[in-house]
Design brief:
This protein has 139 residues and is of the alpha/beta class. It has helices at residues 2-26, 76-88, 109-116, and strands at residues 31-35, 48-51, 62-68, 90-101, 120-127, 131-138. The chain has 3 helices and 6 strands, in the order αβββαβαββ. β5 (120-127) and β6 (131-138) form a beta hairpin.
């Protein structure tokens, strides 16, 4: 029982570290937040929040974007389509943060760099035991 509780505590601390980094990264910007089907709560203030399925209805562009738990359940083609739609709604130079659980195609820093590199300037990839997150400036 204690091992299970320790595991939960480690995941919670990992998520809190990510949450803190996101708050600092996006502070003071007009933010579009896109949430996947099982997105944990974040305290980061946002300008517009939509579910992944509603992204196509967003017509304006934003200075920053936050997408959590949007890619892990998609196929490689689905990820590419999401990223195209996502970047169309972010201004050139926008600050971008994405986070998800580690999973197929999004497991290692190299896989994440390959996925986001074509869209990014100053790409920062972090992979923890449970979650990964990337920060970059939209190219």
């Amino acid at each position: 029982m204690a091992k299970w509780r320790d595991s939960l505590e480690r995941r919670f601390m990992e998520w809190r570290r990510l949450e803190y980094a996101v708050e600092h990264t996006l502070a003071g910007r007009r933010v579009l937040r896109v949430a996947g089907p099982r997105t944990p709560r974040l305290t980061t203030p946002v300008s517009v929040a939509v579910r992944r399925e509603e992204l196509g209805a967003v017509e304006e562009t934003f200075q920053a974007g936050l997408a959590c738990f949007c890619l892990g359940e998609l196929t490689a083609e689905g990820r590419a389509a999401f990223l195209r739609a996502w970047h169309e709604r972010l201004e050139a130079g926008a600050t971008v943060v994405l986070a998800d659980r580690r999973g197929e195609g999004c497991e290692t820093p190299a896989e994440l760099a390959d996925l986001f590199g074509p869209h990014a300037k100053a790409l920062n990839v972090e992979v923890g035991p449970t979650f990964w997150w990337v920060r970059y400036e939209r190219a």
